[in-house]
Amino acid sequence: LTVSNSSRIQLNAGAGSVLAASATPTVNTGELELFGDFNNDSAITITDGVIDIGNLVGDEWSNTGSITLTNSTVELGGAFTAADIGTITGTGLSVINGALDNSGQVLDLGASLPTPIELRNGASILGGTLSTTPLSLFEFSSATLDGVTLAADFEVQRGSTLTVNNDLTLNSATVTLTSDNNFTNLTVSGANGDTSTIGGTGEILLSGTATVDNRNRILVSGAGHILDIAPGVTVRTDTTGGEIRHNNNGPMTLRGAIVSDVPNRTLTINSTTPVSIEGNLSVGAGSVIDLNNYALASSAELDVEVGGLATADFGRYMGDDGTLAGTLDIALVNGFSPGLGDTVEIMSFNVSRTGTFDTENGTGIGGGLSFQVNYNASDVTLEVIN
């Protein structure tokens, strides 16, 4: 069986079908589609072409033969396990657009498939750990991770949505959202009253070339569904702003670190239900964290950089309703030495403020001067006194 000259052959197998070892399918600048329920026991070679395995969600297939690519693409659809992938080697691109059941397994897809490896529309991975080889979700695609541990970096390309069912655990991994002004989402989905935790150790980076700050988004979907960002996880602006948003105005608990340190960009945390801040918020000079409605726990730490008196020179926390507690950490940066009477507004409240910080660090600035933290109805300011 030979496929060439950009032609395409589609084989639709019935249950229990076998592509025998005696067969030697060859593709040269064409496409071979193997659909249905089958096992490949043959040696397939693909040169400058495509092999598309599995079509419908119910297609169950396995590969006990070999598939060798040269500058080609293999597309894995249908339903399969890591063991079903078998031996696929060579050079080119590997695409997952089917359902991979990785329950209980630690899988380095790069050891099983040619790299790079992309997830595309309809891809889902159930359970287990994905290790070592970086993965990406191709632009303008949707895919699902269900109870997965990431021990490999993962890029969500522009306009795509990566949906997390149940929990997502990071094992020294980074998930990067790369918007170009198309909404690019990490969506946490679940039922009313259930909690999804983004846990472990790692980062979620808000990156790309977006000029609008809310285009990289961590979204919570489902009325009453709870998002928990656990200690050890950092959400950080990289080259853009971003948003952590509950689509149904339900509860969120932020126990990790939320960092906005890109000048002139804003990271928004948005829910009408008060967001519980139990971890660290950090805002760099010239950057903003905008919180709609929030309450700081006694364990919360708010960091703010002050590098001058203009709004572009110090960090700001903005929002509607805020309940303060925990620790305020002030850091002078960029060689700034404030003078007596200088004042900067580090927090503002459109509706109301309740409470004060339990601890204020970094108030001493030398030369007999210090910052006095002033708690007003609509803002919190730092005023230099002697």
Plain-language structure description:
This protein has 386 residues and is mainly beta. It is built from 2 helices and 39 strands. The N and C termini lie far apart (88 Å).
- In angstroms, what separates the terminal alpha carbons? 88 Å
Query: How much beta, percentage-wise?
Result: over 45%
- Average per-residue pLDDT, rounded, comes to 95
Low-confidence stretches: none
How much helix is in the residues? under 10%
**In this structure, how is the largest beta sheet organized?**
10 strands, parallel, barrel
In what order do the strands lie side by side in the largest sheet? 19-20-22-25-28-31-29-26-23-21
Features of this protein?
2% helix, 2 helices, 386 residues, mainly beta, 10-stranded parallel barrel
